[in-house]
Amino acid sequence: MERHTHNTSRAPAAIGPYSQAVFAEGKFLFVSGQLGMHPDGEMAGDTIEEQTRQALSNLLAILDSAGMSTANLVKTTIYLKDMDDFAAVNEIYGGMIGSEPPARAAVQVARLPKDALIEIDGIAVTGA
To answer: Which of 44, 38, 31, 42 is nearest to 78 (CA)?
Structure first.
């Protein structure tokens, strides 16, 4: 299998032994979970709205640096610290992802890295 990592300085560096994204077979881009952190590693704020916007901005920056856009996204997963934030996240997500959103799952988790409120990962396909 053809596989290579993809990273950009326009999103936070990995905070563990993983890559921001991995291309597989030259067609699929698997984007690691993005927290609501600025590229310098500082959390975007204390609210779900601030962290959601930044997590999505990071995901979009990685897509863009790989020559892709939201049109290439086929699946995302949203990990929430509190499912009560779902409506606020949904509103921001809808505005940033566009009119033809990918398949998606949203789950509540006990805890996220850096005590973040949200993490979003994605899978994109070239030529989608």
So the answer is: 31
